[in-house]
C-alpha cells in the first residue's frame, strides 16, 4: 500500500500541492470566499506564504467518500475559476494531475471537471461569458401529457362541481394537473335573490336618484353620501358550527366544543348604524362615522333562587321576538339619540336613514319616529332601499362579514361576552377600510350595465394601492351614454344591447 501511495504522490505536480496547501489553510468559511482571496494577482505569492509556514500539512486525500452527483452553480464557478488560474495563458493547458486534484477537492468525478473545463475553454476562446449553469433545467423530468380539451368542454355545467365528475376518460389526476396549470379555474358560486322585472326597475330608479346630473365641465357623478346613514339587523352567533385551528401535533390537543343542539347555538340580534367616514386629504380621520351597534336584549329579574343567583338578581336575555314596536323603540331611544350626540356640529342636519324592506321595519311615514327625528334642528328622514338588494347596503356589502370574522376570534362563553365581543369588533374596525366599502358601493355602475339585475361581478379598482398613491377618488364618474341607455330602458321597458357603451 505504501508503494501505491508513493506512486500517486508522484503523479501530482508540485505546483498543485502548493495550490492545495494554500486553499486548505486559508481558514475561510465558503468556497466563494476562497476564490475572492485567491486570484491571479496574488498567485505568484503562494510559494512565499508556504515557505513562511513550513508546518502546514494537508489531509486532502483521506476525507473523500463517494462523489457528488450534482454540483451547485457556486461550486461550478469555483472550479472554473481555479482551473483558469492554473492554466497556461497561451494554450490554456493545465499542469499534470490538475483535473484529478480538483475533482478530489470537490468530491466529484474527474470526468465532470474535465467536461466543465472543455466547455469553459470553448466559451472563452469565442470571447463569450462563461456559463456554468446546469443544462438539465427544463430538459429533465416527466414530459407533460397531451390531452384533448374538447373532452372537458362537453361536460355539462351541472357536472362541473368536483374533479372526479369532470374526468371523462382522462382521469381525475390529469384534471387536477390541468387545474394547477391554469387552464381550469375554481369558482365558488353563491345564491342571489331572484329579481322580477319590477325589482330591476326599482333598482335602476334608486341608483339614478343618487346621481348628480352632469354640467358643462363635469360628467355625471354619484353623490358623496356623507349625510346618509345605513342601518340593518344581523344575528351574531357564539361560534361557528365548524372552526379551523392550526395545532402542533406533538403537544397540543384538539379543542373541544359542545352545545345542546347545533341548530340552536347561542345568538343575539344587533342593529347597526353606519355613515361614511370623513377623511382629510392627508389621510387623517376627521370622524369615523360609527353611529353604533345595539343588541336586542332586555333585563329581567330572577323569580327563583338557583345555585348561580339569588331571587331578584338582574339577568340579561335576548328579546324573543323583534317586532315593529321593538324596532321603533330602538330607533327612537338609541339610534336617533346617538346620531344627535355624535353628529359633527358643522355637519349637514338633513340626514337620510336607509333601511331595507323587512316587514318588522317601521314605515317611512311613521308618526312617532318623524316627531323625534325633527328635534334639535335635525331633519332626519327614512328611506327604503329596493327589495332584494343587499348589494345596496353598506352593512350587507362588507361590514357585517368583517365584524363577524373578528368576533369569532374571541370565543364568548355567554351573552355578555358575545355583546362585548361584537362591540369591540365594531369599535376597533378601521375607518379607512370602511371608506373602501363606501367606494365599492359606488361601483353600482355595474347594476346599470346589467339592466337592474344582480347578475354581475363586483369590480376591483385596487383601492388600497390608489389610497397609498393619494389617488383614491371620493366619488366615481358615470358615462353619460350608460345613463341614457338606462333611462331608455325605464321609459320603454326594452333595451338594445348594441346601444350599450363598449369597454376598451
Tell me the layout of helices and strands.
Elements: H1 2-11, H2 14-24, H3 31-37, H4 46-52, H5 73-86, H6 98-105, H7 110-125, H8 150-153, H9 172-181, H10 197-208, E1 211-212, E2 221-222, E3 228-237, E4 267-275, E5 278-279, E6 285-287, E7 290-295, E8 297-301, E9 314-318, H11 324-342, E10 350-355, H12 367-373, E11 379-384, H13 394-407, H14 415-428, H15 431-442, H16 445-449, H17 463-468, H18 480-492
Parallel strand pairs: 3-10, 10-11
Antiparallel strand pairs: 1-2, 3-4, 4-7, 5-6, 8-9
Helix pairs in contact: 2-4, 5-7, 6-7, 11-12, 13-14, 13-15
H and E string: HHHHHHHHHHEEEEEEEEEHEHEHHHHHH
Question: What Rg, in angstroms, do the CA atoms define?
Answer: 38 Å
Strand order of the largest sheet: 7-4-3-10-11
What is the straight-line distance between the termini?
A: 83 Å
Number of strands: 11
Shape: elongated
Mean pLDDT: 81
Low-pLDDT residue intervals, each spanning 5 or more residues = 1-16, 22-64, 499-504
Q: How many helical stretches? A: 18
Helix/strand class: alpha+beta
Beta-sheet strand percentage? 5-15%
Helical content class: 25-40%
Main sheet overview: 5 strands, mixed
Report a brief summary of the structure.
This protein has 504 residues and is an alpha+beta fold. Helices cover 38% and strands 11% of the residues. It is built from 18 helices and eleven strands.
